Description:
By secondary structure, the protein is α/β, with parallel strands linked by helices.
Amino acid sequence: xxxxxxxxxxxxxxxxxxxxxxxxxxxxxxxxxxxxxxxxxxxxxxxxxxxxxxxxxxxxxxxxxxxxxxxxxxxxxxxxxxxxxxxxxxxxxxxxxxxxxxxxxxxxxxxxxxxxxxxxxxxxxxxxxxxxxxxxxxxxxxxxxxxxxxxxxxxxxxxxxxxxxxxxxxxxxxxxxxxxxxxxxxxxxxxxxxxxxxxxxxxxxxxxxxxxxxxxxxxxxxxxxxxxxxxxxxxxxxxxxxxxxxxxxxxxxxxxxxxxxxxxxxxxxxxxxxxxxxxxxxxxxxxxxxxxxxxxxxxxxxxxxxxxxxxxxxxxxxxxxxxxxxxxxxxxxxxxxxxxxxxxxxxxxxxxxxxxxxxxxxxxxxxxxxxxxxxxxxxxxxxxxxxxxxxxxxxxxxxxxxxxxxxxxxxxxxxxxxxxxxxxxxxxxxxxxxxxxxxxxxxxxxxxxxxxxxxxxxxxxxxxxxxxxxxxxxxxxxxxxxxxxxxxxxxxxxxxxxxxxxxxxxxxxxxx
Length: 512
C-alpha cells in the first residue's frame, strides 16, 4: 500500500499523488513553444514533484535533463562551472550519451549546448536556482539570452528555473530571457484536490475520513502540499491506527496539537525561523487590525514573501496558511510570563467554572476581568510583546483553567485581520471565544457578525466575544448579551487603560 509523502518529491508508485494534468499541460505548452520560464514557490509546495512529472511527460519528444545549484552559492566561479559540467555529463549518461569537452566559463557552456550529440531537442530544468553564485549570475543570464536568441545554433530548446525566491530578486538583468509573465505558478491544492488525495488512501486502506476532518485539513493548510501530506500521514500512521474506525475530529485535535507544539516539521520550522528575523513586523501582521499594504520593494516584506511566510492578498499583507499563523502565534508566545501565580488564590476550587452540563465560561471570563482589573498593566507582557500582549494574556489565563479542568484549548484563526479565537473542547462539547482589539464602533459591531458566521460554520449556538479597549473605562457598559444572526453572543469589554500596575494579593473567595 502506498503512503502519504512527507519528504521530497512524490513517486506515484510509492505515494498518494495528484497528477494535476491541466497544470502539466500548461508546462508542456510552454516547452513546446521553446520558452525559458520559471517556477518559483516556497519549499514543500510541490515544485519538485511537478517538474519531475513534467519531465516524464516530455520524454517522448525531448531530451529532458535536470541539474541543481544547491549548496553552490558560495562556490568560486571555477568550482561552480566544474560542478555544472559534472551534473550535465551525469544526465547525458542516462541516455548513453557523452561529451568530451569541459566547461570552465560561459563560452564553454554555450559550446556545450551547441555540440552535445542529442537527437531530440534538449530541455533543462535547473533546481535550487537561487544557489547560483553572485559572481556567475549575470554572465549566466547573458549566456541564456544569447542562446535564446540564436536557437538555430543550439540544441537547448527550453529552460525551466526552479527555486524559492522571487523572480524580481534574481532575474534583475535586462538581459534576462526569463520574462516575468512566463512564470508558471504552482498553486496549492484546492479543497477538491485535498479530498481526491485522501480518497486515494481511502480506496487502498478502506479507512474513511470524516467530512469534518477533510474540511479541517484544508481550512488549516489552504492546500499547502507539504502540510497536507504531513497531517494526513500523522493522522493515519500515529493517531487513527485502527483501520476499521473512521478518522475523526478527536484524531484531528490530537494531530493539530502535536504539529503546533511538538513536531519538528521542516516546513513550519523554516517559516518560524524566517519570521523570527522580523519579530516586530510579524507581531503587527499577526495581531494588528489595520491592514499593511503589500510591496516587494519593502525589504522586510520582500524577505518574508520570498520565504513563503506572507503573500499578497489584493494588495495587502496576509499569512496565507492558517496553520502557519497558528504556529507563529505559538512560537512568539512567552514561555513564562510570571502571572500564573496570580490567577488563583489558595481558596480556589475550580468548581465554580463547571456546571452539570459543561463549562461555566461566564464565570471564567468574569474571573479574567477581575484579574486584569487587579493586576493592571502587569497582566500583559508589555516588556516583550507589544502587539500581541492582549492575546497572550487571555490565552494563558484560559488555558491554565481549562487544563486544570481536564479540557483542551486550540487556537483558531478565522478570516479577518486582528482576529484570534480560542476553541475549547471540554467533555465532547465545544466553546468559542473570539478576541479583538477595539478600534471603533464599526469594527466592534462587525466583529459580532463575524463571530456569528464562524459559530454557524462550527455548528454552535452561542459564542463569547472578548474585546480589549483602551478607549473604555469602568464607567461604560462592559458586558452585553444579544442575538446576532440567530446566534447568542456574550460580549466582554476589557479595559486596558491603567493608572499604575499593582501587586495586590489575590483576594480570598467571597472578599472580592
